[in-house]
């Protein structure tokens, strides 16, 4: 009789332990989902804040005119556009420095 009670109590313990383990694992997975969702929420809030700031910039009265001037080269009556070509110069050319001599030229000037 003791043996049957012992076996039944072990079976009940295993069933209860299995249920607890499954619920703990399920809770752990749900906590990970909540954590990921909170991170996503923070990212979306930051993106929303950035978009609101950008919207405020766009809503400023002079924004359209500034963009038309910068990107479309819009001018007011009586103004002229002056476009300067880009110069590809090095800093040594601007400062008036000479190009560095080759090593063989340095040796040649050293001995002769």
Number of helices: 4
Q: Which spans have pLDDT < 50 for at least 5 consecutive residues?
A: none
Tell me the β content.
under 5%
Cα distance spanning the termini: 117 Å
Order of helices and strands: HHHH
Structural class: mainly alpha
Average of the residue pLDDT scores:
87
Number of strands: 0
What best-fitting shape do the alpha-carbon axes yield?
elongated
Rg from C-alpha positions? 39 Å
Q: Tell me the helix content.
A: over 70%
Largest sheet: none
Tell me what you see in this structure.
With 112 residues, the chain is mainly α. The protein contains four helices and no strands.
Give the topology, please.
Blueprint: H1 2-58, H2 63-72, H3 91-95, H4 103-111
Entry summary:
This protein has 112 residues and is mainly α. The chain has four helices and no strands. The N and C termini lie far apart (117 Å).
Which descriptors apply to this entry?
about 110 residues; mainly alpha; 4 helices
